[in-house]
Amino acid sequence: MDFAKEFLVPPDGKIKLADIDPGYKGKNESHASAASEIAGHVQCLAELQYRLYAEGKRSLLIVLQGLDAAGKDGVVRHVISGTNPQGVKVACFKQPTHEELAHDFLWRAHRAAPARGEIMIFNRSHYEDVLVVRVHELVTKSVWSKRYDRIREFEKLLLQAGTHIVKFYLHISPDEQLTRFKQRLDDPQRIWKIRESDYTEREHWPAYVEAYQDALRKTSTRRAPWYVIPSNHKWFRDLAISSILVDTLADMKLQIPKPAVDLHAIRLRFHSAKMEQEKNAPRRERGKPRARTLAHRSRKQRGKA
Ligand code: AMP
Ligand code: MG
After folding, report:
1. Do 84 and 49 form a contact (C-beta atoms < 8 A)?
2. 68 alpha carbon to ligand 2 midpoint, in Å?
3. What is the pLDDT of residue 14?
4. In-domain check, residue 142
5. Closest approach atom of ligand 1 to CA 68
């Protein structure tokens, strides 16, 4: 299945979330049947991320949005798990701090944007400023309504600097959300995640759907596309997202860079360094593992003391 084609929000297209089934799982029957495919994608992602890091010229920004318990943390855990932490970062966008509020709304997003060679995951993002902010009227309509254009410009700026962008809306049903809230109540490992706001926000579900629809319609562009991922089944969500990420990185045609040094000259230097090393090493230590030598020395020292 071509997940990218299936779940893409067409640029400037009309999208109605009510028409998309959050429980959709295509022809895939169960987690068991998808598990090896997900594992393959995760492995592939690790290899592609290594190339992105080695190339060091471009970057990838992954935006994760969704209502509470939609599974944003789960995607970070399951899909990005195989990558090297040196080249992958996660930024969580919570309620803005005083310092953040004292700046324009894109300031904190720009500061967290990925450096060349990096993958950056936004767990929530600058989109909160046209979602929660709009739903709770934290600023007036005349302010938030201008932000879609600013967001498009901001993302264009990042694109021009070599940052590829992919954005996922994790689509769950109110029923599924309640099931997950119940699981949190019952699971000592997850109980810490519960917030009172989970329930107050839930009351604003229709307003959030409206705000999300507007954001998706106004900011899905050819080069910074939104995908609506049916996410009631966690494994299907992971399958679809990992597949789209592999496609996105593969399309970047990442290449391990050619060495910046003269390999012939470096090989000669290596051999002369090796000969020098062997010449200088005391006869009894040649070929012996270093750890044994050190142990021997410390025994001797102990003897002296
Ligand atoms: P969580 O993702 O569960 O840790 O919750 C973070 C909370 O911060 C969510 O309720 C978000 O809606 C909220 N939040 C994130 N960005 C903003 C923002 N710009 N203004 C107000 N609230 C925000
Ligand atoms: Mg939460």
Report:
1. yes
2. 5
3. 85
4. yes
5. 3
96 close to 38: Cβ distance less than 8 angstroms: no
Residue 85 domain boundaries: 3-251
Does the residue 257 lie in any domain? no
Q: Residue 299: pLDDT band by 50, 70, 90 thresholds?
A: low
Residues 107 and 195 in one domain: yes
Q: Are residues 287 and 162 in the same domain?
A: no
Q: 141 is written with which tokens?
A: 């309509």
For residues 134 and 219, state if they share a domain: yes
Q: Whose CA is nearest to atom 9 of ligand 1?
A: 94
- Count of the separate structural domains present in the chain: 2
Ligand 2 geometric centre to CA of 228 (Å): 19
Nearest CA to ligand 1 atom 12: 132
Contact residues of ligand 1, CB 6 A cut-off = 68, 93-96, 124, 128-129, 132-133, 197
* Residue 31 pLDDT: 85
* pTM listed for this prediction: 0.90
Helix (H) or strand (E) holding 237: helix 234-251
CA-CA distance, 235 to 124, in Å (whole number)?
Answer: 21
